[in-house]
Amino acid sequence: MIPLPRELRQCRDCGESVLITVTRLGRYLLVDPRPDERGNQACYRVGPRVWHSRSLDAAGAMPPAAWEHRYVPHVATCKPKKPKATQEALPILPANVTRLDPKRRRRRRSR
Prior knowledge:
single chain; mainly beta; 3-stranded antiparallel sheet; 6 strands; 0% helix; elongated
């Protein structure tokens, strides 16, 4: 089953078309829009513009059912247009100073 053009979105990193699916845990997973036998995600349409996916690599995972097709996760094929910031772009610190910026998490504001 191939998704309709209105069901596809653009990847923020590479600009390619992707299909957004919902996993069994309720999280979003981007997959490439064409079925591929090399894929490890079984995806199927639940309703208009709603797709679900499940991993075929999990322990005890069943093979794809008749209504499911294999898709490749987009993270495996994504080629970002702009390189991500690296540690080399940051200023050099003395040997006894540790940079905490990359290890910090964003805090949610409570209202």
